Amino acid sequence: MINIKSAYLNTRNQFLTLCSNLETEDYSVQPTEFVSPPKWHLAHTTWFFEQFVLKEFSSEYTIYNDDFAYLFNSYYNNAGERVLRPNRGLMTRPTVKEVYAYRNYVDSKMVVFLDSNPSKKALEIIELGINHEQQHQELFYYDIKYIFGNQPTFPTLKNSIALNDITQKQEFITIKEGVYQIGHNTTGFSFDNELGVHKTYLHQFKISNNLTTNAEYIAFIEAGGYSNFNLWHAEGWDFITKNNITAPLYWHKVKDTWHYYTLNGFKPVEPNKPVTHISMYEAYAYAEWKQMRLPTEFEWEIAAEHLNYGQLWEWTNSAYLPYPNFSKAPGALGEYNGKFMINQHVLRGASIATPENHSRKTYRNFFQADMRWLFSGIRLAQ
Amino acid sequence: MINIKSAYLNTRNQFLTLCSNLETEDYSVQPTEFVSPPKWHLAHTTWFFEQFVLKEFSSEYTIYNDDFAYLFNSYYNNAGERVLRPNRGLMTRPTVKEVYAYRNYVDSKMVVFLDSNPSKKALEIIELGINHEQQHQELFYYDIKYIFGNQPTFPTLKNSIALNDITQKQEFITIKEGVYQIGHNTTGFSFDNELGVHKTYLHQFKISNNLTTNAEYIAFIEAGGYSNFNLWHAEGWDFITKNNITAPLYWHKVKDTWHYYTLNGFKPVEPNKPVTHISMYEAYAYAEWKQMRLPTEFEWEIAAEHLNYGQLWEWTNSAYLPYPNFSKAPGALGEYNGKFMINQHVLRGASIATPENHSRKTYRNFFQADMRWLFSGIRLAQ
Amino acid sequence: MINIKSAYLNTRNQFLTLCSNLETEDYSVQPTEFVSPPKWHLAHTTWFFEQFVLKEFSSEYTIYNDDFAYLFNSYYNNAGERVLRPNRGLMTRPTVKEVYAYRNYVDSKMVVFLDSNPSKKALEIIELGINHEQQHQELFYYDIKYIFGNQPTFPTLKNSIALNDITQKQEFITIKEGVYQIGHNTTGFSFDNELGVHKTYLHQFKISNNLTTNAEYIAFIEAGGYSNFNLWHAEGWDFITKNNITAPLYWHKVKDTWHYYTLNGFKPVEPNKPVTHISMYEAYAYAEWKQMRLPTEFEWEIAAEHLNYGQLWEWTNSAYLPYPNFSKAPGALGEYNGKFMINQHVLRGASIATPENHSRKTYRNFFQADMRWLFSGIRLAQ
Amino acid sequence: MINIKSAYLNTRNQFLTLCSNLETEDYSVQPTEFVSPPKWHLAHTTWFFEQFVLKEFSSEYTIYNDDFAYLFNSYYNNAGERVLRPNRGLMTRPTVKEVYAYRNYVDSKMVVFLDSNPSKKALEIIELGINHEQQHQELFYYDIKYIFGNQPTFPTLKNSIALNDITQKQEFITIKEGVYQIGHNTTGFSFDNELGVHKTYLHQFKISNNLTTNAEYIAFIEAGGYSNFNLWHAEGWDFITKNNITAPLYWHKVKDTWHYYTLNGFKPVEPNKPVTHISMYEAYAYAEWKQMRLPTEFEWEIAAEHLNYGQLWEWTNSAYLPYPNFSKAPGALGEYNGKFMINQHVLRGASIATPENHSRKTYRNFFQADMRWLFSGIRLAQ
Ligand SMILES: [Fe+3]
Ligand SMILES: [Fe+3]
Ligand SMILES: [Fe+3]
Ligand SMILES: [Fe+3]
Question: Which of A22, A24, A25 to mutate to test the interface with D (most CBs of D within 10 A)?
Fold first, then answer.
């Protein structure tokens, strides 16, 4: 099974590359509840393989450290008995060095296990674990940007990802009315939330080939978009009012010019790059201002092959809900997707932070409407 | 136009009947943010006719009191300049008597106006105003129950509404797969959110003829439903944990027996009545426990003619989103529905608190998932 | 014992006079935690006599209503078992009419009891109850001003109290260094917190004969007093910053002129009246700006006979702490004063809201530093 | 001026010794608002010498890094203009290594300056800076204990401080009534808050020679001290109720035995050591339970020579208020003490965390009543 072993090792090593320019101090902070420290991501993704693979399927496996199982479990509900609960951003111990040792230990055991002709069930969970680690690698980018972008000195992440200019002329593609097939067929990996090929009826619509640019978004700001409540959801208006939001996250006006923090530094906003770090509320208000709308996730999936996508996850106007015949796995792995299917919104596509080969046309990403730290973008429909 | 005049007067008088057993003190309190005092409902529905009908269409109309326009406008966004903002539950003035005088004034002007051959546009807005007032009459029931049900002395509302026992045997009706028509056609009144007859694809499903009863729900409680996190949305689990919720709203355990507050008094829970005052989270968890699910709003609409409904609004597993080609009216009336189309959930049917003739098969009611003070219920699908 | 009976009846009737111009709606609201609704004051002061006098000393007394004992007890700690806790501002029942009936019932029983040659112990508690009711009568003024002064329509209280102009020229009185006697001697009523005549050493000081006027305070505002953090306690600076405080409570700038709400209406600030509705923090900052200080409560007591006082309670720079040999009564009455002796500040004098004969030179009033709804004022010392 | 130079260097080096067993990760976290990360203490105390000594008095001095001046200034009020505000626990940069370089830079400049015959004014500020650094060294102990003591793995600080058993028999010393002298005379260093020798009148009192032990405090717990509201200030009762406090900070019941976290590890509570990490509220309630009281700070100062003290700061029943004729220094240094003189409480003595020679009989330490992370203790008076 040479294929999955190299996929495992590639993914595991990729995380070390992502972290190669961090200082020890950068690994441990948690500036807000939805951000996790890099150290936690490194340990938690390791714990996944220990908990669901080695502990389940490898009879001679010895838990590295009972504390780690407790500290890096994200499924708090069945956590053991302790005097104190872990708080991700306040754990100075184990140290970064100790977490890397934990990774090495689990990796060495996983290599032995992968060489031992694992069962089909085990291989499925390993594949899930690889995809899980890739998701945390994407979150790592969101989180380190938040960690750096909220410090007064704006540190940078050397050799980091950057968006490209949008160079193609904007066009609206027309898709005809009819019954369409939606969802992932059973070849290749997918998450449970995209499973179940099924039919949906779409009415005719048009969809932009490109994402919205910073220049277009600045026009919205300058037209008073953030102070015209008619453009906003009631809840979105409350959100921007209560939080004094007047521009995307990481934007600051310096001497009348919009600047933003990027992982490569603080600089004037670049007009031809796609606008990012906007909430679902802002995406919606922008579309209202353009007298258009956001596509549904079904429209997006059917139109995908005609679209320029992959730089930013695209807010759709679809709530994250189960497909017909959705069923979740038993036990802890069943907590993966189903329990989040309320008050979240589907994003389609992929972003520059997404690991290679991690996304696909049927991939359903999802976040709450007020999240802005992800690499999100806007595509118009009508 | 005798028809709309009598509809107007009937609806307006109906509110007086609803309030006929209140004490003056009951009109003014606001125990929580989502509850409005009865006095506010009485004045706000009056302001609707003053603002959108008389002020717009009746040239000789004189505003009753500029303060009232400011105080009873629920569309805060364009409110005028004042030293202080109104706070619904803390306004002891105008008094109840003054609010009734305001109603009389507006009603007398409306009668004159209705007799003066109003334009089609004006008649449409009056019809909307009547439906608006009916919605507030339903909210009045939710609110007065909350006002009374959270006082230690549990006051009652004389001659009030009550649920009936469910007497029919439970069956599951099967609906075949196919393309179906959804939405309101243009005959008769409807809200903008249900407009636009359009097609949707439904896969085959089964749906219960009856609502879930208190006895069935107590079985869920006694089976530990409120302490098994696997049954809950992650957000629902946080909600019940943070708020120590272990039963529907208004339920209290007294000497090992579940009791509840009803508008007719505090009493042991009646087993054969449909369970109510549960959040969307609880409806979902109950369905999970039964290894079934809630229907979508589209499934409900297609199955409606086969169902026993009308006692309680039924949580569906559909997010409140625009229909294809949804468009909102310009100006303040456009704020009626569209701006709420995020993070809310559709309920279908009607309740014992719904004014006569106010609901229909295509009616889309909607609330946030954590709301429990409405007359909500559970219907299972699979 | 004719004297205490007439004191009892006078005090009880006085509360009816205070409330004679209220509307029913005004009795029940609680706009913020530290404000109690008038209805609650009326019932709570009645409960005091029922609980501590009639129930204790009158063998044939029948509790008027067990609910009332529960609802109007301010000593929550020993409250009985109920399904729900009372929330002062949300109880629409008992009605105002029922509360007045409760007062009548208790008063009629008290008259019989007072005529029955009560024990010395009982008489002492009745005297305490009279003083307790007077304190609540003063609180009534603070509370009704807050209730009216936070409504957009600024209702007035007909025939209400008003401050007088300060007409005497300001002088600073000098008091010599030495050992002085502080505290109440045993003749006449006093609270336990002022008991225990004892010695204190005072260094020489000067104290103003007059209170600070609105004109003087406006000079402080216009000199930027609210934006110069050097004048403020660190905690005071946080308080005004977080709450956007730039003037006394009830002040509003209308077209460049300071106005304020008084119980007699909304009007331009009157320059020669003493400034009121300022927190301890503001009093301190004003004194700092004048390069003076507030007196201690001991300085105040020794200088009192030379001062013009009685319009407003005067913030001193003394924390509310026990006198040497302070001891509290056993049981619930012991909760009266001692348990508040931390993080509160002594005010001396009396105010226009204080019932006649209620205050004296040794009286120790006390509030938290951030309270502004009381009738507080500023006197300088150096 | 060899004396102050060696005092400077000793104090500065002492901080390196305190930190010698920390991991890099331990330097940067801020688990709660009142705790500062060790890195911040190290930089802030350095900034003090840069800002108030080198920048003021050394003409050729070059600021090490403008960012540091902004980041490590605790006097936020006059902070410069930045896009973002520093947040002590979330700054991963500058790194620990960079902060130590900053210390070295400032120390080398200070040595040159100290050798250059500084003015008397400069020497006074250096002496203040040394005492300031000593205060932060004590805070370092409180903070690192909080950082470690709230992690589930309970890390230890090697070679750390520990309390001693109380071995002497308890006695109550009697002090006679009379006029006494309080405050620091002008020989030797003191803070401005203890200056101004003045007279105070003390009534006769008794004071314990010893601090309260853990065994004595456990008796209080076991007698239900934490559930008898009569023993508590109203505010203290709210504090323990809202925060579920049933024992001192760092105490945990494991299998029916009280354990606590100490810097040397998690272990059963040692009965003969003095109880610590109790709030002012708990100290007061304990004294009430013993039917005694806490001494005032004046009683303590007069009795000090008869007392066994120095292990723990002792809560007095005195509010932190200015002495007669207290005056604060102009400018930023004037912010040192005066602005905290409200709602804080005086502690007298010293603790095992206090640097050598830092305390004295007249030293006035002060904290809010709810603070428990300091090394506080209880001494009874009557
Ligand atoms: Fe995960
Ligand atoms: Fe409305
Ligand atoms: Fe009272
Ligand atoms: Fe400092």
Answer: A25
B177 Cα to the center of ligand 2, angstroms: 39
- Please give the C-alpha separations between residue C341 and each of C315, C335, C344, C367, in angstroms, as whole numbers: 16, 11, 7, 10
Beta-strand runs (E) in chain C? 172-175, 178-182, 198-202, 205-208, 251-254, 257-262, 265-268, 313-319, 345-349, 365-367, 376-377
Q: Say whether pLDDT at C89 is over 70.
A: yes
D104 CB-near residues (< 8 Å, 6+ apart): none
Contact C312, C349 (CB under 8 A): yes
Nearest to A90 among D29, D83, D94 (CB): D29
Q: How many whole angstroms from D41 Cα to the centroid of ligand 4? A: 8
What's the rounded Cα separation, in Å, for the pair A182 and A4? 28
Condensed to tens digits (0 to 9), the pLDDT of residues D135-184 reads 999 999 999 999 999 999 999 998 899 999 999 999 999 999 999 999 99
Q: Does A90 touch chain D (CB under 8 A)?
A: yes
pLDDT digits (tens, 9 = 90+) for D180-221: 999 998 678 999 999 989 999 999 999 999 999 999 999 999
Strand partners, A94: none
Burial label for D188, CB within 10 Å (0-12, 13-18, 19+), is exposed
List domains and CATH numbers for chain B: 4-149 (1.20.120), 172-377 (3.90.1580.10)
Q: What are the residue ranges of helices labelled H in C163-213?
A: none
CA C116 to chain D, closest CA, distance in angstroms equals 34
Backbone φ, ψ for residue C201 (5° rounding)? -100, 125
Total residues belonging to chain C? 382
CB contacts < 8 A, C to D, total 73
Name residues whose C-beta falls within 8 Å of residue D268's C-beta, 6 or more positions apart in sequence: D257, D258, D259
Contact assignment for B342 to A179 by CB distance below 8 Å? no
Strand partners, B258: B253
Partner-chain residue, chosen from D281, D293, D343, that has the shortest CB–CB distance to C369: D343
% of chain D exceeding 90 in pLDDT: 87
Find the CB nearest A25 among D28, D31, D150.
D28
Residue with tokens 């006979």: C305
Task: List the alpha helices (DSSP H) in B50-119.
Answer: 55-57, 66-71, 96-114
* Cα angle D268, D270, D272; round to 5: 165
Question: Mean pLDDT over residues A314-329, rounded?
Answer: 92
Tell me what pLDDT residue D77 has. Answer: 52
Q: Do B201 and A203 touch (CB under 8 A)?
A: no
**Each residue's pLDDT tens digit, A159-179:** 899 999 999 999 999 999 999
Q: What are the pLDDT digits (tens) for C312-341?
A: 999 999 999 999 989 877 666 776 788 999
Task: Please state the ipTM of this predicted complex.
Answer: 0.94
Question: Does position D1 have pLDDT exceeding 50, yes or no?
Answer: no
For residue range C266-299, list pLDDT tens digits in order: 999 999 999 999 999 999 999 999 999 999 999 9
Closest CA to A195 of A209, A183, A187, A178: A183
pLDDT at residue D370 greater than cutoff 60: yes
What global pTM score does this model have? 0.95
Q: What's the burial of C332, exposed, middle or buried (CB within 10 Å: 0-12/13-18/19+)?
A: middle
Chains interfacing with A (3 or more CB pairs < 8 Å): B, D
Report the run of H or E that residue B148 belongs to, with start and end: helix B120-149
Among A residues 165-194, those touching chain B with beta carbons less than 8 Å apart: 179
Residue A48: CB atoms within 10 A of its CB come to 23
- Three-class DSSP labels, C13-68: HHHHHHCCCCCHHHHCCCCCCCCCCHHHHHHHHHHHHHHHHHHHHCCCCCCCCHHH
> What value does the mean pLDDT of chain C take?
94
Q: Is C80 a residue whose pLDDT tops 80?
A: no
